[in-house]
Give the backbone structure.
Amino acid sequence: RAMAYYTNSKERGNPLMAAWHNLVMLQMIVSFASLCYGTLESLDDIVELGRDLAFTISSFYILFKMAFFVVYADEIDELIDDIEECYRWERKGPGWSEVRSTKRCHFLMFACFLVLWSTAIVAFMLVMISTPFWVESQLLPFHVAWPFNLHDPTRHPISHAIIFVTQSCTMLYLMTWLVFADHLSVSIFSELSSALRVLCIELRHLQAFCEGDEVLMGQEVDRLTKFHQRIIDITDRCNGTFNATLTMQMVVNFLLVSLSVFEAMASRHNPKVAAEYLLLMGLTLGHLSFWSKFGDMLSQESVEVAMAAYEAYDPTVGSKSIHRQLELMIQRAQTPLYVQGRPFPPFNLENYMAVSKSDTNTFQYVNTKFDYLKILKQCYGILTFLLETME
């Protein structure tokens, strides 16, 4: 909403906002078409072709994400409403101070990631906008082609200046929107991780809270069991809602990482161009690590529920019904919760390190003889890993 491009039913019901949404989408489609057209002009230059392909793929991902929010914004609103209900699910008791401290830590950690990622995106945008000023062969932030050579500064200097300003403004707006859109998506899974941590705290303090009162314990165990099941249901709905964009994100990350590594090697004799590819690869891996970190948190916290429920279990206190509910919670927590776009592997640090390792192995050829086959083998080692872990 801060970027005036949140396409739920309420926003689309406003004629002015609907017109703005259509204008932004039209501008993005035109920009994407000009990038595709420009790619055709770079077929004879492998370095320039790689650069064009990288930004064409990135633009397609942004376009896909915009279309995704047009379709699923209302469902995302429903998920946010359900998570807000979970936010106040806990009760004041022995673990109340720990609950507040946990929520505060989760918020501060997420805020730190937000600042770091936003700073990286701002640096990337500044580099891209300034590229024409320090790379002689680059006349625009992104290589595009327009009919009648409108992008050629020698023939049409005014239209070239307009295209330059339009590209810069469009990139600033859409990259900023993408940052907010990603943080909205990640924050949903972050809040689920926080809710699981709160559940663990309440389970560990269950005996102290109930003080031997079996009636109160029965009520609390029933409440916590339902809370756990609600988190599982919301997580499944989140993965279902975000499945398309998570799958596309995995595909785009693979393509950009492989392409950036290959092109950085191909242009290693031109440090400025190679640095641009390395920056793009760093952003791609940073984006992947951002999602992997919070996906890993969700998985770890979901497994911790089993240990917390086991600590809450006391065979000398409570009825058989209470014991069965705790056993059910332990059984449910045996299966970790994931952030996952099927059929690809989940977003977690283990899978992220496997991808990063493939990239690291590729760089061992930087100071050796340039071998396309070896580099391709290393790049597509990532693809082999993805295929082996697909469901």
Remarks:
- The CA atoms of residues 257 and 285 lie 7 Å apart.
- The chain is about 75% helix and 0% strand.
- The chain has a mean pLDDT of 80.
